[in-house]
Amino acid sequence: MRVLVCGGAGYIGSHMVKLLAGAGHEVTTFDNLSTGHRWAVKWGIFVEGDLLDSAALTKLFAESSFDAVMHFSARSLVGESVTNPALYYLNNVVGTFNLLEAMRTAGVRKFVFSSTAATFGNPVKETIDENHPQQPINPYGQTKLAVEKMLSDYAPAYGLSSVSLRYFNAAGANPDGEIGEAHEPETHLIPNVLKAALDARRRLKVFGADYPTPDGTCVRDYIHILDLCQAHLLALEYMAENEGAYGFNLGNGQGFSILEVIRTAEVVTGKPIPYDVEGRRPGDPPVLVADSLRARQVLGWEPHYTDIQSIIKTAWDWHRKEGE
What we know:
single chain, four-stranded mixed beta sheet
């Protein structure tokens, strides 16, 4: 297939581009490089551009023919979305609208959307399946849910088939060490833990150690980046036989606490990870774990990296290489 990957220079997008190319698909990356990296796009064609630029999108679809589009071009920092919601509604909602309209004009009718567990808000049960209420508690989650609703409306009206994949915590790196996670600023736990292992001057911050969990720290579900990308490939296959708008939750199905991640990283790296406990952050639920049974049953998806040590090791191999 000829696949357009919007946001293909970012962490998840670049891994997706590599997997698509390896599977024999023709890939084009469209990215404004605001948070992505040109060096991460090593496969297919690269086009620099912005989803807010309708003329650039018109030109892109006029000059190239695509069978499907994957969309990873979102602003994704929860705190930033609270202090600057306009940026999130503009980029995540208006940008996606522009993309969908360009697809509609060009007759492209398959769309895989990078959604998030943030659409669910505060959990009402420990494992979150697709029937869990979607009640976001921040603008980031609201914008992602707005796009999911848009896709539900576009399906019957315009014949656009879509799969929204709601991630929990993407982690790890390609085992060959060619690409990995490089955000600025870095807000994700595992890369920050590993940066503390690489730099003795850094100390990790643990927000809250008095939660109703076994060790008092938050429990989260970590899914390896390759398992995540594999689900996107399966979503493409699914849309070949199924029209309409669909949503699936993607997670490991297991929860690991912050302290478990730190202790496992110490084993993987052979280095101490110094940390300081600070107060809870508002809006952090004690436990967030996915129920991905539907993705397993319907898409035939099966995660291969199911233990936290193997996930952290792939990330460590990349971060250590980058630090050399």
